[in-house]
Amino acid sequence: MKPKKSYPKEVYLNGEWLQPEAAKISVFDRGFMLGDGIYEVAPFYRGKPFKLKEHLDRLQYCLNEIRIDFDAYSLEKLIFKALERAGLTESDAAVYIQVTRGVAPRTHHFPEKVKPTLLLYVFPVKLEGFEEKSWKVSVAEDFRWYRCDIKSISLLANSMANEEALSTGFDEQLLIRDGYFTEGSHTSIFFVKNGRVYTHPEGPEILSGITRQVVLDLCKELEIPCKEKALHLNELPEVDEIFLTGTTTQVMVVDSVQHKGKEIFRLQGDSVTAKIQQAFIERVGE
Ligand SMILES: Cc1ncc(COP(=O)(O)O)c(C=O)c1O
Prior knowledge:
Elements: E1 11-13, E2 16-18, H1 30-34, E3 37-45, E4 48-49, H2 52-65, H3 76-85, E5 93-100, E6 117-124, E7 134-141, H4 156-167, E8 172-177, E9 180-184, E10 188-193, E11 196-199, H5 210-221, E12 226-228, E13 241-246, E14 250-259, E15 262-266, H6 271-285
Parallel strand pairs: 7-8, 7-14, 11-12
Antiparallel strand pairs: 1-2, 1-6, 3-4, 3-5, 5-6, 8-9, 10-11, 10-13, 13-14, 14-15
């Protein structure tokens, strides 16, 4: 089912707090014209940030990779201000941050001396109860570019994958490159096989998920053997559990996987995933 979304009450755009309908950018903003920008989403559990430094580190890494001159860490104060202004200091929420290269006459090369465009807002999210849900997912070819480690605002390929899944009754689409699972349209993928946890190694094929790293750390603490190794589609019959991670998805168990109209995985039991979910709930509550 497609979830319903609404606009935030207010957004911060280039130094001003505005109603969403009053927030305007130039048609020559390179974010609008070329998808030339980076975004980030970070969560707040009952008003408390979770892994905010890691989210800002990733934002800074991505901005540096595409040479947008912007200090991600300068946003910290503004993020808390936005949380306060949204009246969400006691609730579960998330902040959306977008930095584009800014406004300049259209060129393929990067223009010089352009002021980046900053958009930021806080929105409410339901983070509780994820462990009671499960997702039915589909599999399709990963036709995205080869810098998926960059959290680019150009999300057309991810959006097409997600749309295909949701419009055909699935909750997410898992992507395969040369037969190997990379990640979901907006999630990281984990497999459990003979008590061992597997996830795709970091690199240009996947986004370095913040939740992914939290889960890797939890596996270490729980002494669950874990390997950063890509799994092939052909290995799915040997897989016992699959779960997906993401900032708002958190740790979601997968109960079935379909590929080309055929069911290729059905969950038998979810003991490892349940253990990780429990540890995750404790971690975000600390
Ligand atoms: C393609 C992709 N992979 C993985 C993730 C999960 O990353 P994180 O845990 O940092 O939210 C996301 C989140 O948006 C994503 O878009």
